Task: structure prediction
Amino acid sequence: MTSRLLAGTALALLLASPALAVEKGEVLDTYSDIAAAKYADSVTTAKTLQAAVDALIAEPSAEALQAAKEAWLASRVPYQQTEVYRFGNAIVDDWEGKVNAWPLDEGLIDYVDASYGGPTDENEAAALNVIATPTFTLSGQEIDATEITPELLEATLHEADGVEANVATGYHAVEFLLWGQDLNGHGTGAGNRPWTDYAAGDDCTGGNCDRRAAYLKAATDLLVSDLEWMAAQWTPDGEARATLMEDEDAGIVAILTGMGSLSYGEQAGERMRLGLMLNDPEEEHDCFADNTHNSHFYDGVGIRNVYLGRYVGTDGTVTGGPSLSELVAQSDEALDAELQLKLATTVLALGEIKSAAEAGFKYDMMLERGNAEGEALIMGGVNALIDQTRSIERVVAALGLEAIQFEGSDSLDNPDAVFQ
Result:
């Protein structure tokens, strides 16, 4: 009897004991572990893409091109969930433009439809077509591009002349080379590049198939190496992790800055509201592949999994630990519950866009002027993202941190300026 009584008393005391307090350093460890897992998954899926590209180049066929497209789509799933690490981590911001810059003047890279036009006052290289032009003048300098290499793309072509639209590297350059231009406007269909754009000899369409293959390989190889570099920054000895840990309060600010800036200015504003205001299908994030619905959705998932301290990898592996959610709950349980609900609401709203697109109502169709259903879907996502940002601002105050200036967007903060 005595032993049973003691055991029962011990259990009651255990159940009555408050949970151990979550420390800021533990939250930063979880955040870094999730970053490492996300970037590692991005590397793995990019290497699968790399293998598919190599197979396409070795033996071009419709099936090989489709396999490369599917690998590209799969590679976007983990990468988009890393975007919440932008804005608060300088090492990510300084690097991100190499791998995910958009929109791009695709005429810099390859042939385009006649409706695309030529050079503009803003971008003299807008229709350069490097694939068809082994030598050219750029910024007054003669460039030898007879051999297309990762170094040429990175050091010479990317953001050439200081123009951000001269995107020569990263996911979207590869996307364009796999799909080609989407010439359907607000109509159904993505880019429709023929596999014969990579064929040999007389079967080659579009001209310069060998150089197109060389560009695709160089861009894909560079993407893999760039992702490998970033993955290394979040390992236990990585620079990004070390920088985050230098000051715990600053580290928590970095997490919240990424969450709030991606939610508000970047996604709700520049990626969603702006395109709707302009009714422009070129404002799609993944415009060539018609994959924008997935990019938006996984951005939302990425924000939520950072707050909850839990990430499910591409192979089902779960990475997690003490979370920002738990840290907030220690100060304000109601606020934590509020933000969790709003994050879930946002993922649901973005999921409705995703479901509609997968059923055939593509994102560029939603952007068409006068399309009430499309506007409602997109604005559902925009409004949910803005609403969760307001709660993120309250979290900053609840944790006793200095106010954070989240990334803004004229589309949200000064709509008249969009049309000036």
Q: What stands out?
A: The chain has 15 helices and four strands. The CA atoms of residues 46 and 75 lie 6 Å apart. The longest strand covers residues 135-138. Residues 1-7, 9-18 have pLDDT under 50 and may be disordered.
